[in-house]
Amino acid sequence: MLEQSLLNQLKRGCELLGLTLADEQCQKLVAYVMLLHKWNKVYNLTSIREPEQMMARHIIDSLSVLPYITSISLLDVGTGGGLPGVPVAICQPQTRVSLLDSNSKKTRFLQQVKAELALDNVTVVHGRVEQVSLPKFAIITARAFASIDDIIQLAGSHCEEGGKLVLMKGTYPEEELAFESTDFHLHDVISLNVPECDGERHLVRLIKD
Question: How far apart are CA 73 and CA 205, in angstroms?
């Protein structure tokens, strides 16, 4: 059965990441993959088609950043199908997660995910990040959304003072780290070891001055 296979895959990934999730959280993550797979056929949410690949390259990849998301408010910019925001919301119910995307099909899908998985800590925002009116957030995250410079320019104003940009990158972003900003400084770059994912993964953290 596909759901059981995905559940086993998720549990192996969590074990390798050193994460402990409740059974209900694991079930919701599997249900999320099933929704992503179902809606992807019509809405083209991701180029990845197979549920097992979605679990590896989307869910387990997103879970690898959980230790670095430690605050009560998170804005996920250019969230697409809800990554990493939905996995964060499932695993950290105490964090208020806002999912922002300018694509109305994707935000319709996210409203469905919020309803079906009963994610009371999630707010879905349809709009462009530089145009929407939002409260300030402790953490702003983005996964394969834009360059560091662009993210600072587009989303930096939504970050509270002392807050962080937590940006998911592939290979070490040498050139991007030469960003020009007087509002943010580089905190660190963390090399992530993500089970079942080929290629490099890095997390860039910047702090708002």
Answer: 16
pLDDT at 191 over 90: yes
Which strands make up the sheet holding 201-208, listed edge to edge?
122-126, 96-101, 73-77, 137-143, 159-169, 201-208, 184-192
pLDDT tens digits for 73-108?
A: 999 999 999 999 999 999 999 999 999 999 999 999
Task: Tell me the pTM.
Answer: 0.97
Strands 122-126 and 96-101 come out as: parallel
> 114 in helix, strand or coil?
helix
| Cα separation of the two ends of the chain | 50
Q: Give Cα 64 distance to the centre of its chain.
A: 10
Write down the pLDDT at residue 5. 97
Taking a C-beta distance cutoff of 8 angstroms, is the pair 177, 152 a contact? no
Assess contact for 78 and 142: CB atoms under 8 A. Answer: yes
Q: In this structure, how many other beta carbons lie within 10 angstroms of the beta carbon of residue 48? A: 17
**pLDDT at 197 exceeding the cut of 90:** no
CA dist 86 → 51, 68, 149, 198 (Å): 16, 15, 25, 22
Which residue stretches of 45-103 are H helix?
51-54, 61-63, 85-91
Evaluate whether 91 touches 42 at the Cβ level (below 8 Å): no
